[in-house]
Amino acid sequence: MDFTLSKEHEMARALFKEFAEKEVKPLAQEVDETEVFPRETVEKMAKLGFLGIPVPKEYGGQGCDPLTYAMCVEELSKVCGTTGVIVSAHTSLCCDPIMTYGTEEQKQKYLVPLAKGEKLGAFGLTEPGAGTDAQGQQTKAVLDGEEWVLNGSKCFITNGKEADVYVIFAITGTVEKRGRLQKEISAFIVEKGTPGFTFGTKEKKMGIRGSSTYELIFTDCRIPKENLLGQQGKGFNIAMHTLDGGRIGIASQALGLAEGALDNTIAYVKERKQFGRAIGAFQNTQFQLADMATKVEAAQLLVYKAAMAKATQKVYSVEAAKAKLYAAEVAMEVTTKAVQLHGGYGYIREYDVERMMRDAKITEIYEGTSEVQRMVISGALLK
Amino acid sequence: MKIVVCVKQVPDTAGGVKFNPDGTLDRGAMLTIMNPDDKAGLEAALRLKDQYGAEVTVVTMGLPKAEEVLREAMAMGADKGVLVTDRVLGGADTWATSTTLAGAIRNLEYDLIITGRQAIDGDTAQVGPQISEHLDIPVISYAQDIKIEGDSVVVERQYEDRYHVVKAKMPCLITALSELNEPRYMTPGGIFDAYKQEITVWGRADLKDVDDANLGLKGSPTKIAKASDKVRKGAGEKVSLDPDESVSYIVDKLKVKHVI
Amino acid sequence: MNLEEYKGVYVFAQQVDNEISSIAFELLGKAKDLAKDLNTDVTAVLLGSGVKALADQLAEYGADKVIVVDDPELKDYRTEPYAHALSSVINQYKPEIMLVGATAIGRDLGPRVSARVATGLTADCTVLEIGDFPLQAVPGQEQLHNQLLMTRPAFGGNTIATIACPYNRPQMATVRAGVMQKIDPIKGAKANVEEFNPGFTPDNKYVEILDIVKSVAETVDIMDAKILVSGGRGVGSPENFKILEDLAEVLGGTVSCSRAVVDSGWKPKDLQVGQTGKTVRPNVYFAIGISGAIQHVAGMEESDIIVAINKDADAPIFDVADYGVVGDLNKIVPKLTEALKAEIAAAKA
Questions:
Q1: The complex's ipTM?
Q2: Which site among A5, A6, A8 would you substitute to test the B interface, given the most B Cβ atoms closer than 10 Å to its Cβ?
Q3: Cα–Cα distance between A379 and A370 in angstroms, integer?
Q4: Which member of A7, A61, A62 has the closest CB to residue B195?
Q5: Whole-angstrom distance, CA of residue C286 vs CA of residue C230
Q6: In the Cβ-directed half-sphere of B164, how many Cα atoms lie within 13 Å?
Q7: Looking at CA atoms only, how far is residue B189 from chain A in angstroms?
Q8: Which CATH number does C222-348 carry?
Q9: Tell me: the pLDDT tens digits for A308-344?
Q10: Do A61 and B186 touch (CB under 8 A)?
Q11: Which of its termini does chain C have fewer beta carbons within 10 Å around, N or C?
Q12: Domain coordinates of chain C in residue numbers?
């Protein structure tokens, strides 16, 4: 077992880090404060291929492995959680299902511009009455001649109004399973601008405030028949498999937030003096930092392991769930401690740890709460 | 068009200079980067490639580890990399370095050679012009803009209070200022591709038309008599004087330090 | 190479638009010291077109002899004709020391000439002295005397190296502008002026100057400024920054400020130094009325020289200042500006 990264991965990390420091960090505070989507940053990332890292080159991507992608989200999130999730939602939740389940035509039409960053992607599963419980879906799709007609709404959609291509889940009928009637769910590709597809309210959030989180509304929204993604009725599986990948992205975001908070805190305690000494000279500070650093590294190992599993295994649900569960909880713990070690300065917006703590909370919630991750992990244990 | 770009791997002095407890520089703890002026030179070459079409070959001299800057250059878009490395080349001053690089470049075809103005570790700005002398081609230093016109280059050559628009027939050597441009980033896919490519590695035996007497530490006319790391400073002096005395105190200190 | 043949301290007397650059006088000042130690004389090498009349000025600043290469090819600086002229002078006259200013011209000319005459060149020197190489006698190695010892900073100023060029001649150095002292000019001094023309045959290395564009000064980014005059809340009001601006102007510096000043709306954010502003490392940083909170210090502690003026003797800024002055900035700063103005005027005269 070798825990050293290859030279390629090291260099890729250096690239992401340099980009994050130079292009993303200077805007992080403003993006949070103004809640404005960092469109220019997204365009810069598009030019560099950051929006298609794990997509094969023949589909306009960079042809890199999931680990490289995870490191990109990690480094971006070290300085700006918003930017991290924009890349994660686009890549894991939109490019990835089209790559995995799309027809060649769908790949050419949607994946290529997505991977090149000419278009931005989003994913619509959650509904007001159905978050974790995918069976609670209400959005319906009915085939009418050559078109599917969508009705219903999706909420808390990351990249909501900013995206161009959406992977949307809807009920297409009912099936009998073990004697019970269940909703049959299918996945669709919906383009922005399709008549009947509109946006509801923009959510005002605690953290990741620059990410555009919207309600999507479908009112007799007609999409071509060929925009069915994967087989009809396989939507639930597609959603779950996609979320396995998404969780690696969110785990990477959480990891980045924890690392960013730790880095800031290390720098701060060396400079901040109380009682005539740098606060880093106090044993309490030292022990706190030791715990933070240890947990951050443990989280990193889990995240990287899950990313490697995605590259080599067909199923990696448990690896992804463990990575997300642990990284998210570490992110919350480490950012909270970081604020504490910054004292009063940690509570004011001028210092990045204040934002990081707010950003961290969502990682325990979206793409499966920590409780859902525990269900996935324990479910596999007791199978 | 064929462009040769010379790059150097240097410690990242801007990214935080690390010190040993005794106040000396901790070189091992410092990250290495592609020298910023060289990176601007590479970017200039890549822009010429984008605009006019060109083959860009990157050459570096250094330890085997310097291969990293070649990979980085290739991940940015350079076509080929040449690493010149040999124990006998170590300890070279600018004369021996320029002799070595000229010996390597003689093996390559080129219309244009671009180097950075200077490296952030040595700050000498000598290697570029000296290579041009060894190769007997024109040099235009301190380039802030580069254009191609037929078989010539037209360069804005910076001086303290002006610039000259200078035209030279190729082959020609240009030294680039980091102000010349904003170098592009690598791409993730470019990095992985760069590591799949072959890098040419040359040693002493591969250098063309050079004399052993002009290589490495032995072939360096300048010799280091003494080197010391500047000790990091702490609190200096503090005085409490009347205003006129305070003024003379500051003026005297600025004089001693050659500020005025 | 017979090193004994090489005699005299030579200075490249840079001129631009037929006006001698200040660096040439500075080099002559230093050359005089070196020549004294070596018991030899100082020669200025003047290259240009229609420049012969400038020789007297060089004499006033200490040149015993002036070699003039006057040729239309040398009208505006171009590497090749200048390199040809200077290396021809070196080959003809065989100086033991050749000093060149570390200017945009000298840093191009120096390396090209050193490569042509096959000698070493030490760049951007800040100290030049005559001494032994090796500095201390080493068994089994001959200790050479009367060597030029050239000291220069490297690694962005983090290391200092002293370099010798013991086995090649001339010993060449480029020297930073503003470091060496010129002598008080000796009015009416005359040098032995000698004209020399090696002949110029234009070839592909003679580049063509299509245009010369003189630049106008632009506003300086505080991160690029060599001298920063930085004010804190102690300055008292936005209007009172005038006294800092006056000081900055005299020194060719730029005004910057602390976070408190930006928060008070006195100055724009792009002038803010510190953790949440910009990190600066100028040659000189004046911290005026700045207490020196760690957030501020983090952005300026790597400045070469820090001068602090603050009325609070316990202000933390004094922990990082090289020269701390406890006192009233309103009384000290205007006087300092006047005193510096007078010093600079005197130095120019």
A1: 0.92
A2: A8
A3: 14
A4: A7
A5: 6
A6: 19
A7: 4
A8: 3.40.50.1220
A9: 999 999 999 999 999 999 999 999 999 999 999 999 9
A10: no
A11: C
A12: 3-195, 222-348
Is residue B236 left, alpha or beta, with left meaning phi > 0 and alpha meaning psi from -120 to 50? Answer: beta
Joined together, the tokens standing for residue A63 give: 């042809």
B52 interface with A at CB cutoff 8 Å: no
pLDDT in tens, C124-168: 898 999 999 999 999 999 999 999 999 987 776 667 889 999 999
In CATH, B2-214 is 3.40.50.620: yes
CA distance C333 to C13: 38
- CA angle, residues C199, C200, C205, in degrees to nearest 5: 150
What confidence tens digit (pLDDT) does each residue in C188-199 have?
A: 999 999 999 999
CB pairs under 8 A between A and B: 45
Instruction: Enumerate the residues of chain A whose CB falls inside 8 A of the CB of residue C276.
Output: 350
Contact at CB, B191 and A12, closer than 8 angstroms: yes
Taking only residues 69 to 88 of chain B, the set having a beta carbon closer than 8 angstroms to any beta carbon of chain A reads: 71-72, 75
Q: How many Cα neighbours within 13 Å face the side chain of B109? A: 4
Q: How many Cα atoms sit within 13 Å of A248 on the Cβ side?
A: 35
Please report, rounded to a whole number, the percentage of residues in chain A having pLDDT higher than 90: 90
The minimal CB distance from B185 to the residues A15, A53, A72 is found for A15
- The predicted structure's pLDDT at residue C35: 97
Q: Which residues in C lie closer than 8 A to residue B236 (C-beta atoms)? A: 306, 321-324
CB proximity under 8 Å: B 91-120 to C: 93-95, 98, 120
User: In this predicted model, what pLDDT tens digit does every residue of B72-90 receive, in sequence order?
Assistant: 999 999 999 999 999 999 8
Q: For chains A and C, what is the number of CB pairs under 8 angstroms?
A: 7
Query: Residue ranges per domain, chain B?
Result: 2-214
**Cβ–Cβ under 8 Å, residues C165 and C122:** yes
What is the distance in angstroms between the Cα of A173 and the nearest Cα belonging to chain B? 42
Cβ atoms within 10 Å, residue B144: 15
- d(C-alpha A172, C-alpha A235), whole Å: 9
Whether domain C3-195 has CATH 3.40.50.620: yes
Q: How confident is the model at residue A383 (pLDDT cuts 50, 70, 90)?
A: confident
So what's the pLDDT on residue B133?
97
Least Cα distance to C285 among C270, C297, C276, C268 occurs for C297
3-state secondary structure of C83: helix
Q: Stretch C110-115: mean pLDDT, rounded?
A: 97
Question: What's the pTM value of the predicted model, to 2 decimals?
Answer: 0.84
A127 is catalytic: no
Q: Which of A127, A259, A319, A367 is catalytic?
A: A367
- Which one of B68, B188, B195 has the shortest CB-CB distance to A15? B188
Domains C3-195 and C222-348 share a fold: yes
Q: Which residues of B touch A43 (CB under 8 A)?
A: none
